[in-house]
Amino acid sequence: MFLCALLLLVGTPLYVQASPIQLKNKVITLKKVEIEQYGLDVIDASFIDNNKLHKLMDSLESEVYQEPQDAFFKKDGRIIAEKLGAALDRDKFEYLFRELYYSDKNGKLHVPVYPVYPKVDSGLLKEISTKALGSYSTYYNQRNSERTDNIALAAEAINNTVIFPRETFSFNEVVGERTVERGYKKAPVIVKGELAEDIGGGICQVSSTLFNAVDLKGIQIVERYAHSRRVPYVPLGRDATVSWWGPDFVFKNLYNEPVLIRASSQNGRMLVTIYSSDTVEYFNGNAE
Prior knowledge:
InterPro entries: Glycopeptide_resist_protein (IPR052913), Vancomycin_resist_VanW (IPR007391). The protein is of the alpha+beta class.
């Protein structure tokens, strides 16, 4: 019985939390005593505790990760170039760490990263902005400043969005939740056929303008809902109501090229134009 208990104790690794390692300018400076804390406790410290090493890499990954940034158009028409992102090269880091662990010295470990490329670079953006496929304008009363601000926020959110072939666009996903913290204000909305006030009132004018701009042969409307009463900014039956936790406006790109959304709101006019390349063609056949 005593022998069995002893074997159970020895056979169960005792994991001790390793002290945090400081990362500065993507370099880790490690003293031998700091390296040794990543050894496998109790059983044999000459072996690395993979659990601790993976936790270290998880921590480093969150510190070194940089989100790539797509190229985009500024309001004046200039293209702002893309920016590469960066992510931890886990395989290379593990190799370098093990090499340092089994050496008998202190050392500096340059944390290896690999580039994360954006989906949209300047060349692509320039190429898919040459041909206008569709455009639509609606108008609003600028004296309602809260509604005007909401329209501007939603228009800016969808502006510069690129939808690749066979990809779908979700208005709610792209615009995000309409909250006070994100700058949205209370303005008139339609709820069950009645006028009321709610955060984000007015953004349905953005989704409705977008719907009319993308109502093209090469765009499949996947999800669209009409308001429960007529709205003044589009003809009857040409609206697309949206609500967080509720109706969404979703469409799919069936062209052979990416399409670009350019949206703006100024001087009481909401404008959406859909662009692509000169070689854009509609995909025939199954839309699935």
